[in-house]
Queue: 2 jobs
Job 1
Amino acid sequence: MKREWDLIEKGEYDVIVVGAGPAGVAAAINAGRQGVKTLLIEALGRVGGISTAGYMSHWTGTVGNKTYWEILERSNKKTGEDARSIYIDPDWLTVTYIEMLEETGVDCLLYTTVCDVLVEKNTVKGVVCCNKNGLTVYRSKVVIDGSGDGDVAYKAGAEYILGRETDGKMQPATLMFKIAGVDTERAVFPGSFETLVPTEKGELQALAKRLLPHPAGHVLLYRSPVKGIVTVNMTNAIDVDGTKAEDLTKAECICRKQMQPIVAFLREYVPGYENCYIIGSASLIGIRETRHFKGVRQLTEYDILEAKQFEDYVVYGAHFNFDVHNITGAGLDKTGVQHHFKQKQPYTIPYGCLVPEKIDGLLLSGRNISGTHLAHSSFRVMPICVGTGEACGVAAALAVKTGRKVRDITAKEIQKIIRR
């Protein structure tokens, strides 16, 4: 008699991508475009991760890699925005992702959690999933970890550090939500912690720090493609380990309880928000930082400050500030620099940052790539994550087609495709 917990073999792919956030979607699209059989696995019921289910307001930072610009142009065409507008409509962006995945022949499996990894002689050979079908096994030649937290790499035994090098602390979590009823002609849109907004009742950042329930206490408000609707980035949960279900649950509850006090604050103190009200909130909590994996190479904050142009780059034209949210409360951490970040030149990311040092058959895509805590505060943003995904998808396809290990693929080979 068959037991419900028996493993079910479901098939073999050339490339499996785990996690359908911007990095995972970009990886799957680019693997599919190179003609290899690709499967994208996602725990949620929609693709896009934090950019869609997370109600992200806009694309922060930038990157040269072409997949990002294609996503931007195609999604903006649906909303009627300028081709390079950075503001996000999560529903139209979801449809854009679906279309691009379908066009490239990628198989998608939603509502599916990867609960284990098949590893033989330090080489990843596939994944074990849990979903409505039971425990299922999918085998592959290459697995790309786009899970954000690096769940596949962790289960495969790849080396990592958790959080900040000095003490293991991690950036706070946020639950984004949207409000309507905003008079956008009069409204203010503080876009960074360093944006100060004087009003008749006082400066907004100072008022928020004094009046909102700790650890909330800052004002970040962003436009949307729809008139009168604003995305709010003001909930805050500290001392959260995003690799633990208990901490994710705690963060969800903390942030949801902050939403009504935040709306009351906006109505009372922020010009243009007198009649605002909540119309929706994210179904995915925003986790900024967890595991930093040890790769063949490591990107440091000095590489970013010097705008390093590595010969073995696979992500190019990357730029963002050191966006370190306060690890002990609201606002900007003392190590963070946003509006006043002086380094204006783009940097690159070498291929070795995407390759785990000791595990084969695996690539890192997104915020889990190899880098320091401070460097991560820059490359964790979505456009740069799309760049790492693009590179991983191409690298995985090259490995499959040539029968080589992913660590033996050269950056020059990847560059020929991503710069074509």
Job 2
Amino acid sequence: MDVAIVGAGFAGIGMAIALKKAGSASFVVLERARDVGGTWRDNDYPGCACDIPSMLYSFSFEQRQRWSRIYPLQSEIWDYLRRCTDKYGIRPHIRFESELREARYDEGSATWTVRTQRETLRTRVLITGLGPLNKPAIPALPGIERFGGVLFHSSQWNHAFDCAGKDVAVVGTGASAIQFVPELAPRVRRLSVFQRTAPWIIPKLDGPVGPLQQALRRFVPFYAWTVRKLIYWLLELRAYGFTIDPRQLAVAEKIAQRHLERQVPDPALRRALTPDYRLGCKRVLLSNDYYPALQRDNVELVTAPIAEVRERSIVTADGVERPIDALILGTGFQATSGVAPVAIYGRGGLELNEAWRNGIEAYVGITVAGFPNFFMLVGPNTGLGHNSVVFMIEAQVRYVMSALAYMRSKKVDALDVRSDVQLTFNRALQRRMSRTVWASGCKSWYLDERGKNVTLWPGFTFVYRLLTRRLNPEHYSKTRLPAGSHAPAR
């Protein structure tokens, strides 16, 4: 086949739709689970929702979903992706329960041999849409292996567990925890929330989408286009403070501080919930009910470090032991670990994780030197702290389609980004990164173990879109095989 896509989340489905629209049928989507959806299939914890408005957290070409709220719920996003999959005829191309184990590039035929647990395939082009938020980060808490109660990560929610009347501990106060903690608090007997670092939280301007708005969104295309553009530019303005002049974030900090003061009257608790770093250095969170949940009589915010996990309790560094029946980890994901444990071998047998031993990087977050005909969606340094990643995905899909069109028109069998081009691009990117708020001193999941930010785009998204509007052939080495050596045939 011509193309193998790995992953059936927003990126993989978006790529498949673009191929389908272009008239291509010679592609397959390899999905490890039994359904599409990616992170919006896996993360189904109570209260799960998106922090980007629904009108923007959706494909630009598919705006007629009946979103019930300004900020979409997890169930609605998952339903949206399934609807897109069926509407554009992608489902027949998907091979479910097919997890990528290994991919090897063969220079003689300019093809990839792709192995899953079910089969081995050969393809001209390999595209991954794995995203950085698919591997749970499990903290190395002392003694956690001997905990005898219920233990799970928020992305692997145990729906069989009935928390009613139980003593529950939550480790982590990130984007997931601030959504499920308010859902748990009224149901449990006792809830202990273990906080390492206080997050910046701003009000969530959410609400239901009324019948009139529903009708306008569905039947007046210009209305949907206008609202989408307005939301985009309002969010895009935040990039100025994040990436150019962090001093401009003072206004947002005051909004967050007033939000905290209004919702938390107790001075001691308010101090514990006040961040000690610049807004934006870590992910900015949106919530109206997290602070009130922490003030319930049965909820305790714990800021002392965890010293030990015992069979049925947690002991903190101050010597306090808290009995618990369940331990829920809201500790995020291994966003900087590359594609491991998947093994992808490029030219000369070089393995991708080995190529990234000094930190993951790519050219425009899409191609990697030494790995011809290999493209990544939501790759290194293409995540966002201020706008919709779906916008970035569409830009990346367009770039890949431009590359495929070039290969067809020029009869090129393989494209491989030049190593000097990749090096120059990433040196400039990291120079820009050093001036952003993400480099202002805090420790976050944006940074790898060396302190290098390998996850976020250090600028405006419209600049990224212009940068990736089409392939520049001069940035790539080209391979044309002798006649008769092409396999499989195009």
